[in-house]
Amino acid sequence: MADDVAGLLDALNIKKAHICGASMGGMIAQVFAYKHPSLIYSLISIMSSTGNPNNPQISPETLKIVTAMPPNGRDAYIDYTLRMWKNLWSKGFPFEEERAIRYTEESYDRSYYPQGAVRQNAALVANGDRRQHLSLLTVPTLVIHGTADPLFPVEAGKDTARTIPNAKLLLIEGMGHDMPKGTWKCIVEAIVNLVNDTSH
To answer: I need a surface site. Which of 33, 107, 146, 149 has the fewest CB within 10 A?
Structure first.
């Protein structure tokens, strides 16, 4: 998937870019950074992990929810996904049910393919511990993580920032494994500051 990003940049004739990813996207962004260092200005890893097996692990309750096979049928899928979102949602922010429903409906209508999620989870496990590669990065890096993340506990964000040399760490109080509207200003400002500070 990191190679797909490189291929997309090439197809769009983009020589270099700021690469930002959240959750699994953060892991893809990390892999991109060390596999394609000539193509990246800066790295932003949000609510992600280095793959360090010593980090605190996801709770059994949350693991069961996020690894369950989604049910067939549009209404059942939407109900299942809403329950999952509520489990992962930021405890320090109100749950945005209307936004969650709209997102879930659009996701289902665009492409319902539950086997894809299973394959992606398998890819995460297979990728393993990235710390050795990440410790050699020289690209400017921003790590953003919520203090209330039930999927990747906050220690995963701290570990990422420790592992990547000179990485900046932004912890957002009460943010879970999502980005509620109350966090947007803080996140956008931090990313803009990094981009502006990164010489081209």
So the answer is: 107
DSSP H stretches of helix in 89-169: 97-110, 114-127, 131-134, 154-163
Check whether residue 109 and residue 143 sit in a common domain: no
Into how many domains does the chain fold?
2
The residues near 14 (Cβ < 8 Å, ≥ 6 apart) are: none
Q: Write out pLDDT tens, residues 100-149.
A: 999 999 989 998 887 887 788 788 888 899 999 999 999 999 999 999 99
- Cα→Cα distances 143→44, 102, 172, Å: 6, 28, 11
> 97 is in which domain, residue-wise?
60-120
**Domain containing 49 — which CATH number?**
3.40.50.1820
Burial of 1 (0-12, 13-18, 19+ CB in 10 A): middle
Q: Is 138 left (phi over 0), alpha (psi -120 to 50) or beta?
A: alpha
Q: Is 40 helix (H, G, I), strand (E, B) or coil?
A: strand
DSSP state of 38: G
SS3 content of the chain, % helix, strand, coil (to 5): 55, 10, 35
140 and 101 in one domain? no
Same domain, 75 and 162: no
Ranges of residues in the chain with a pLDDT under 70 are 199-200
Beta bridge pairs of residue 44: 20, 142
